[in-house]
Recover the amino acids of this structure.
């Protein structure tokens, strides 16, 4: 798959972890990947935990999984909000059913838990939600990045380089 044709949907809500949103976006754009930020409202400005703003390119309520090659979920406190939207859970389940890459870091595991797609999957996350991950049926590993098929997970901001190397490997098949 050529990076020129790849489109990734990155979910967003207020209180996202600034680095966990922006580092992947910038890294993917450097690789020639088109990234769209999807919030509840298109063109709304969302503010990260540390005050960094991001504007949604589109609404996740209208996003169509078949228009994208992969999905990213940042951490922070946003995942606790995102997992409450049935449209988000449906999107995650569609990406999973199509075996398109899904990246999640830190607290983003909450979204995958609520979408009920982690049973039997090897994943990592912030240790703070390890019990949640295991209670959902996942096999939790304390590693910087874990690849299990099309699901790529990571623990926290210091692991972003390993996370993005793993995600790009799965996304671009390299």
């Amino acid at each position: 798959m050529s990076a020129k044709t790849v489109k990734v949907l990155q979910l967003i809500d207020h209180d996202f972890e600034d680095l966990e949103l922006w580092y992947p976006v910038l890294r993917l754009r450097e690789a020639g990947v088109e990234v769209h930020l999807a919030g509840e409202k298109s063109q709304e400005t969302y503010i990260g935990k540390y005050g960094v703003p991001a504007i949604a390119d589109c609404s996740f309520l209208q996003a169509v999984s078949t228009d994208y090659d992969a999905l990213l979920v940042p951490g922070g406190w946003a995942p606790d909000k995102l997992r409450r939207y049935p449209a988000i859970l449906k999107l995650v389940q569609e990406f999973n059913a199509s075996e398109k890459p899904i990246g999640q870091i830190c607290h983003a595991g909450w979204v995958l838990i609520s979408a009920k797609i982690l049973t039997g999957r090897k994943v990592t996350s912030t240790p703070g939600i390890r019990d949640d991950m295991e209670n959902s049926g996942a096999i939790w590993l304390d590693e910087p990045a874990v690849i299990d098929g099309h699901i790529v997970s990571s623990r926290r901001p210091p692991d972003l380089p390993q996370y993005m190397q793993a995600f790009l490997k799965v996304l671009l098949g390299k």
Remarks:
- The first helix runs from residue 18 to 30.
- The chain has a mean pLDDT of 96.
- The helical segments are 18-30, 78-82, 86-97, 109-114, 130-135, 160-172.
- Residues 75 and 84 are 15 Å apart (CA to CA).
